[in-house]
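Exercise 7.
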Amino acid sequence: MASTETRAGATTTRTDDDPAASGNAAKGGDAADLAGLEAGLDALESTVVHRQPWLRTAVSKAVPPIVAIVVVLGLWQLAYHFQLKPHYLLPSPVDVARSLRQKWLEGTLLGFVWTSVSRGALGFVASVAIGTVLGLIVAQVKAVRAAIGPILSGLQSLPSVAWVPAAIIWFGLSDATIYAVVLLGAVPSIANGLVSGVDQISPLYLRAGRTIGATGLAGVRHVLLPAALPGYLAGLKQGWAFSWRSLMAAELIVNAPDLGTGLGQLLEQGRELQDMSWVLAAIFLILVVGIGIELLIFAPIERRVLRSRGLLVKN
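Solution. The predicted structure, written as tokens, is:
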């Protein structure tokens, strides 16, 4: 029932007793509440991105490692100053830098680094090819997983240096020995990483892929590998770490004039000459190469993958 009131020349119609009007008002209120709820959820999900000056970003990322390096060098210099070990057993940072400078002036330093990096890169590429295929088979075939899954985990925990004597017997003092040790150290890590990534895929993605016809190799390429990429990438990072460590272990033991001189052979030469400055310089180069590969190659790829999946917010 509607009533009309006249106030100050204005006419107002009240519809308090009209059921249809009351229903419309209630629906309007519900819609407003729903819109407010959606706006609140959007506000929770959205992240305000503030662009910082590149100089400030560079400083914020560079200062902590620089401070850590300065602290380590300071402690090292104090240990040298107070002779915790004789100077011929614990040289100063300056002595190690002098040894590096000598190798640089001789023109041999980059050759040592390149020999090891090229071996590590080639061994890692071969490990990725083998480990990816093996990981897909283990992840997809239950009988294969039951048979060799525990063996892969055991091989991953086996120290790479344990393979060196066997590889020498099989292949002699040759490049094949070095690459065999690298493969045996890296392949299990890459395969296990891919298996872990596949296990974390939602079954809904796999069913959706089969529905649109992505089966066989097409399903692996377009559904399985992209969905398992975070776990697969973690396996690749670990595989590189294992391949680099395996390479250094092999180069330390497999030493022949025809093989060339890598960082592992350089380290062994320093030990034979009882030159600790040489030994520590080689250890420093091995560490720098490992960190450099991580920061320049794997870290940017990992950030991009995580950011594309909404797992990492760029601030």
